[in-house]
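Here's a chain:
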Amino acid sequence: MAQCALTGKKVQFGHNVSHSKRRTNRQFKPNIQKVSLSSEALGCSISLKVCVRALRTVQKRGGLDAFLLGTDDAKLGEEALRLKRRVKKKGQGTRKSA
């Protein structure tokens, strides 16, 4: 199933409604793209399947690290939460040594 790694956005279900009001089932699929985003805190690029809406938000916020740290945990997907924990852990390690 298509699912965004950052936001957890999935396929939604609904109906096509014709002029005669006959309802047929359909799917609303998110626009999922495979992208490679670089993380400054982790020092590497991470390959993710991301919906375009989340990708635009990442670019607006100024990168993957800023997006993860500035977004509530409830709005993030499972993979994004794992990444957020890794970024926080690396950030704390660099602060202690400085």
